[in-house]
Each structure stands twice: as structure tokens, then as C-alpha cells.
């Protein structure tokens, strides 16, 4: 077992990026953490951490060793969980990255219900659309929608989403209502993640490059701009539900809406996924299996 000494401390330092933070995480003294890591480096005959007065970072060898050690610790945790009682007690923190109205209105409440079934589990949600580093930032999984770049991550389909184009009665009265997506080239469009909007005609997909006076990666802000008559928005149907029902917005270009935008659960491609993440992912997939936008 001496071969395992210092590994837990090394992983904690790598993830916390400091000895003091790692000591606090493991409820140990900073000197103990430092000694354990130093002994590990001496036993391996290689420097794992580059230390300065301000920060601690991984060397190239440390990066490779950290990846293997993280897998080892996750595997041991999964082994412990696999022989636990049938009534599983999840502990620790489930860290999830998500963004947008759908995540706020549907994903978050679903995970709240999941948390109620596991009172010893903490959940941390980061509402940000950027691509996260699962290893360095400690995320268990992320919720993303649309086309995904090939990043070596595992992507599991959560739901198929339908898009809707809408504008305020004020905007349509002033600028007229477009009758075909190509007309959007001459309209003010409110942008989210991209300026190429995907439509469908005669079962064929095509995109239109649009532009306009407002751009934001926050769907709620784009929705407000649309309600204020600043232009036309094109987002998932669920984003518009209350605004359409209240008459603040009107659906347009209904015959051309795209029905092929997918929401995904994305996570790191590794052998061992913590049970808290595996069960949460299964819970979400089950909850949304019959979901209709």
C-alpha cells in the first residue's frame, strides 16, 4: 500500500492549485500535504508540481500522472459504491454546467427533485454557455444544445428541441412581417450564439445569415429585447411560452421552423464516472424521455 501514499494529497493539490487549499479540503495540515507530495515525487524520481511563491501548477509529467491518479481514485470510489447498500446514499458535490432558459426552467427543477431524494448530496450549478474543462474545474457533466464540436467528450441525447421565430406586435407594425426566412436579411434580428439561423423547407434544411442591433448569450435578455420591439428572435419554443400566451410576442414564419436542435448531456470520456453523476444523468434521461417542446 506504500505505493499509494501521497496520491490523494497530490490530486488534491493539483485540483485546488495550492497546498493550503488542498490541506483545507482534506482537513490536514499544509506541512503534511507538502511532505506527502515530496515523498511521492522522491519515490517516482520525477517532479510532478512546479512551485512558485504565487501558485502551484502541474509539470508535463504531473499532467500525465494526475490523469491516471484521478481515474484510480474514481475507480476506488465506484468500487466502494458498487458494494454499498441497495438504498444508495450519495454524498459530495454534483457540479453541473448549463445555460439558457431551458436549463433554468426545466433542468434545475429536475435536479432539485433528484437532490431531495439524496439529502446528503450537494448540487452546484454554473449557468454559463462556455466550454468547460471537466478535469480542472471539477464538473461532472454539462447541458448543451445544438451542434457539438468533436472534442472527445461523451454526448448523450436528452431531448429534441423545436425552434420558433417571434416578434412583438409593435415591431411587426413598424417593419412588416416577413413571409420567408430570406426576408430576415432585411430585418433586425436578435442574436444568441450564432448569426446563421437554421430553417426547413420541403423537408430540406437551409440557413440564413442574419444581423441586428442586439446580441447576448442569455436567452432571457434576448427575449426582453424582443418584447421591447428591438427585432426578431429565433429560439427554442419553450423560451417564448409565456410571452406568446400573454400576447407580448407573435409567432412568425411558422412553416419554416427547424425541428432538429438537440439538447445533450456532455461529460468527460473516462472509464469511471462517479455514481452521483451516473445516477443524476440517468434521472434526467428518464425524466425527459417523453418530453415535448
UniProtKB/TrEMBL annotation:
Keywords: DNA-binding, Transcription, Transcription regulation. Residues 1-59 form the HTH lysR-type domain. One of its GO terms (biological process) is DNA-templated transcription. PROSITE patterns: HTH_LYSR. It holds the Pfam family HTH_1. One of its GO terms (molecular function) is sequence-specific DNA binding. Coiled coil: none annotated. Belongs to the LysR transcriptional regulatory family. PANTHER family: HTH-TYPE TRANSCRIPTIONAL ACTIVATOR TTDR-RELATED, HTH-TYPE TRANSCRIPTIONAL REGULATOR. This is Transcriptional regulators, LysR family protein.
Amino acid at each position: 500500500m506504500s505505493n499509494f501514499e501521497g496520491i490523494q494529497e497530490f490530486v488534491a493539490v493539483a485540483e485546488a492549485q495550492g497546498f493550503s487549499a488542498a490541506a483545507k479540503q482534506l482537513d490536514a495540515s499544509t506541512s503534511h500535504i507538502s511532505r506527502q507530495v515530496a515523498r511521492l515525487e522522491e519515490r517516482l524520481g520525477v517532479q510532478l508540481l512546479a512551485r512558485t511563491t504565487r501558485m502551484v501548477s502541474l509539470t508535463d509529467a504531473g499532467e500525465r500522472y494526475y490523469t491516471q491518479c484521478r481515474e484510480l481514485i474514481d475507480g476506488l470510489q465506484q468500487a466502494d459504491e458498487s458494494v454499498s447498500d441497495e438504498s444508495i446514499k450519495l454524498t459530495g458535490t454534483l457540479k453541473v454546467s448549463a445555460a439558457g432558459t431551458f436549463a433554468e426552467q426545466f433542468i434545475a427543477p429536475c435536479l432539485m427533485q433528484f437532490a431531495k431524494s439524496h439529502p446528503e448530496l450537494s448540487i452546484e450549478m454554473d449557468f454559463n454557455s462556455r466550454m468547460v474543462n471537466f478535469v480542472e474545474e471539477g464538473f461532472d457533466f454539462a447541458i448543451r444544445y445544438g451542434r457539438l464540436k468533436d472534442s472527445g467528450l461523451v454526448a448523450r441525447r436528452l431531448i429534441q428541441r423545436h425552434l420558433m421565430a417571434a416578434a412583438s406586435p409593435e415591431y411587426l407594425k413598424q417593419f412588416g412581417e416577413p413571409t420567408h426566412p430570406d426576408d430576415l436579411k432585411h430585418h433586425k434580428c436578435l442574436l444568441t450564439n450564432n448569426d446563421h439561423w437554421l430553417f426547413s423547407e420541403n423537408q430540406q434544411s437551409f440557413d440564413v445569415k442574419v444581423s441586428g442591433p442586439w446580441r447576448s448569450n442569455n436567452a432571457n435578455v434576448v427575449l426582453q429585447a424582443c418584447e421591447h420591439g428591438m427585432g426578431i428572435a429565433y429560439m427554442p419554443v419553450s423560451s417564448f411560452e409565456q410571452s406568446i400566451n400573454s400576447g407580448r410576442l407573435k409567432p412568425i414564419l411558422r412553416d419554416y421552423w427547424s425541428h432538429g436542435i438537440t439538447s445533450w448531456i456532455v461529460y468527460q470520456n473516462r472509464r469511471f464516472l462517479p455514481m452521483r453523476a451516473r445516477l443524476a444523468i440517468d434521472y434526467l434521461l428518464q425524466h425527459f424521455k417523453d418530453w415535448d417542446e
